[in-house]
Amino acid sequence: MIDLYYWPTPNGHKITLFLEEAGLEYKIHSVNIGAGDQFKPEFLAFSPNNRMPAIIDQNPADGGDPITVFESGAILQYLAEKTGKFLPTDVRAKKTVMEWLFWQMGGLGPMAGQNHHFSGYAPEKIPYAITRYVNETNRLYGVLNKRLDGRTFIAGDDYSIADMACYPWIVSHEKQQQDLNNFPNLKRWFENIQARPATIAAYKAGEGLRSGEMSEEDKKVLFGQTARSTQNT
């Protein structure tokens, strides 16, 4: 049993994608990031960056006490190594998957996230910031499109945790002001993953948790965090 602490965001979806593909038994524990659930002491005890997703593996491979893991990339790597799925053991092939996993963690996710923030959530529309992050998202789409030229998946012929990490960040391409028709290799890859039964199940798992648009109070909780506010919660 995997206890998944989750909210239906791109980082949350990464983990349900893996769990559904691998056929692992899991239980979702809602972490409503607009309501401030990520600051609860019981959650911070194993997710010290007050961010979801995080997991507790109740049946770790070493047979010992439950293992906690936070950070979506670390969770994907942990689960892949636990199950022996979606991460090659060959040193060169594994290296490639890990390169693109970290590319998503360090580039696509943060840049698309800033795109979302300044285009959709910021109370003041700052043209420079919007242009900066829309353009950088566009550049990263181009990098991924080029990588997928002649390849079924990011690391080659096999679906991997690199694909699971990147896909959820492409789902909101329209909000990111990106046209997939300009990236034919990326579009083919995206539609391929979108049609997978496990992808459909992964997104269905989060249905009903989020209700409507984020309120102004929710935004204050989510975007107004400082060291003082997190320590005093």
From TrEMBL:
Residues 1-87 form the GST N-terminal domain. SUPFAM superfamilies: GST C-terminal domain-like (SSF47616), Thioredoxin-like (SSF52833). Keywords: Transferase. PANTHER family: DISULFIDE-BOND OXIDOREDUCTASE YFCG, GLUTATHIONE S-TRANSFERASE-RELATED. The keyword Transferase applies. Signal peptide: none annotated. This is Glutathione transferase. Coiled coil: none annotated. Belongs to the GST superfamily.
